[in-house]
Amino acid sequence: MSQIPAKAADPQIIDQSSRRRTFAVISHPDAGKSTLTEALALHARVIGTAGATNGKSNRKDTVSDWMQMEKDRGISISSTALQFEYRDTVINLVDTPGHADFSEDTYRVLAAVDCAVMLIDAGKGLEVQTMKLFEVCRQRNLPIITVINKWDRPGLESLELMDEITERTGLRPMPLTWAVGIAGEFHGVADLRKNEYVRFTRNSSGASLALEEHFTPEEAQDVEGQLWSDALDEASLLESSGEFDLDGFHAGTATPVLYSSAAQNFGVRQILDALVDLAPSAAPRADADGEVRPVDAPFSGFVFKVQAGMNQAHRDHVAFIRVCSGIFERGMVVTHANTGKPFATKYAQHLFGRDREVIDQAWPGDVVGLVNASALRVGDSLYEDTPVTYPPIPYFSPEHFRVAHAKDPSRYKQFRRGIDQLEHEGIIQVLRSDRRGDQAPVLAAVGPMQFEVVQDRMAQDFNAPMRMETLGYSLARLTTKEAMTTLAPVRGVEVIIRSDGEYLALFNDVWALRRVAKNYPDLPLTQIGVNQDASV
Ligand code: G4P
C-alpha cells in the first residue's frame, strides 16, 4: 500500500483522531445492548440516571431509545451515533439496529466503526445474530472486545463461556477482568491488569452508578475467601491469562474479555477503560485502490447509511457519514466523488434519537448526519481538495424475497419511482427477470422488517400503495447468465438479475442449493456477503 503524503502534519487533527474511539455493540436481541448503552452513557455522565433495571417501559425518555419514534410509526431502522467524552477521550457509539429490524443496515454500520463490543448474555452464550455480526467483523478484521453481561443472573460457567468463544469464533479470549462469584452471585471482578479486586455494591435502584471498592489481592482473600481463590484459579487456567496481546486484539485474532451487569452498572467503567486504553483510535483508511489517506489529509468520509423519513414533520433524507480524514465544518462545500458534483453541507447534524444537535465541526472517527442529502447513496465518498473514493460497502446476501405489485396499476410510474428511490437508499435490493417483467419486481432483504419499511414508505411518501407476495426462497448465490437457461426447468430455483447487472440464483432452501451444486458442478455459485453459512 502506498501512502498519500499529507501537506504538513496537522497536530490538531492528529490529536483529535487519536482521542476518538468509534465502536458498535454486536449482540443478539435481549442480550442487553440498550441497557449497556445507557450504562456507558451514565458512566460518562451524559445522563443523570439510567432506568435500565425497570425494564424497557420505563426507559422511553432515555437516550438510547432512539428508535421509538420510528417504532410508533410502525417502521423502524435508524442508526445514529451517541457521542460522549470519557477520560479526555471522545467515544462514538454507533447503533446497530437490533430486534426485529435486523437488516443490511446492521451490517453496514460495521463498515463505519473501528472496533466492536460483542455483548454476550451469560445465560445463553453466543447466539445466532451475534455470530452473524461476528462474521462480518471477522471479514473486516475488526478488533472485538467481548463483554459477558447479565452476570447477576444464573448462567453458564466462566470457563464454559471462554471455551465457547474460542471454539465458535476462533478468537483467543484474553480476560481483562474475571468475575468473582458465580453467575447469579456477582460480587465483583478481579481486575487482572491492575492486580486488584473491585467489589461492586448495587445502588438501591440500579439506576445510578454502583459503589466500587478496591482491594489488594490479600485484602480480597480476606473479604471474599474461597470466591476470590476460585476466580484466580479459573483465570489462571486460561493459557493466555496475565499476558495481553494488543497486536492480536487489533488484528482481530484475540479478544479482551470483561464481565458486566449492565442493569446494575457493574463492570461498566472497566469496559470504558478498555475502550480508552486498548481500542484503536480513528486511523488512516485505505481507499478503493489501497492507498492510505492520512487522517490529517483534507476532509473525506463515506456514507454508511441513508435514512429517509426520520422526522415525519420534515420528511427529510439524512445521509450518515463517517469522517475518515480532515476536519468537517458545517457549511463547507465538498465533492461527491461518485458524480464529481459539489455538495453543500449546510445542514449537518449529530443525531441521537429525537434529539438533533447541529454539528459545527467533526473529526476523523465522528459520524455526521447530512440532511437533505438525497443525492447520496450508501457507500458514496465525499472529499475536499484531494479526491478519494473509499471501497464500496458490500452487498449482503438477502434471505427474504417478495414480489411487489402496485395496488393501483394506474399509478405504476409512482410505484416504479418509489421502488427505485428505496433501492437507491439501500433499504431494499431490487431484482428482475424477463419472466416476471418490470411490473412485478422482486424485492430482496436481509431482514423481513425491511419490507414493512418499504410498504410504509411507498404509501406515505410516494402515494403508491403496493401489495406483496412472499416467495419461498431463502438463499441466494451469485451466478452467471448461462445459469438462467440451465436452471430454468429446475424446481425450487430461480435465476434473477440484480439492478447492478449481477445474476443471482435463488434457492428455496439449502437442499435445493446442494442439489444444484451436485448436478451442475461447473455452474458458478458464489456466496454473497458473509451473513450466510458458507459450508454449502
Ligand atoms: P437489547 O437492547 O440487547 O435487546 O437488550 P435490553 O437492553 O433491552 O435488555 C433486554 C432485557 O434484559 C431487559 O429486560 C433488561 O432489563 C435486561 N437486562 C439487560 N442487562 C441486564 C443485566 O445485566 N442483568 C439483568 N438481570 N438483566 C439485564 P426487559 O425486557 O425490560 O424486562 P425486565 O426484565 O426488565 O422486566
TrEMBL record:
Compartment annotation: Cytoplasm
Record PROSITE patterns: G_TR_1, G_TR_2
Record's keyword terms, sorted: Cytoplasm, GTP-binding, Nucleotide-binding, Protein biosynthesis
Domain (Tr-type G): residue spans on this chain: 18-285
Residue numbers binding GTP: 95-99
Example of a GO cellular component annotation carried by this entry: cytosol
One record GO biological process: regulation of translational termination
GO molecular function, one term: translation release factor activity, codon specific
One Pfam short name: EF-G_D2
Similarity comment: family membership: Belongs to the TRAFAC class translation factor GTPase superfamily. Classic translation factor GTPase family. PrfC subfamily.
Entry-linked HAMAP family: Rel_fac_3
Purpose of the protein: Increases the formation of ribosomal termination complexes and stimulates activities of RF-1 and RF-2. It binds guanine nucleotides and has strong preference for UGA stop codons. It may interact directly with the ribosome. The stimulation of RF-1 and RF-2 is significantly reduced by GTP and GDP, but not by GMP.
Protein name: Peptide chain release factor 3
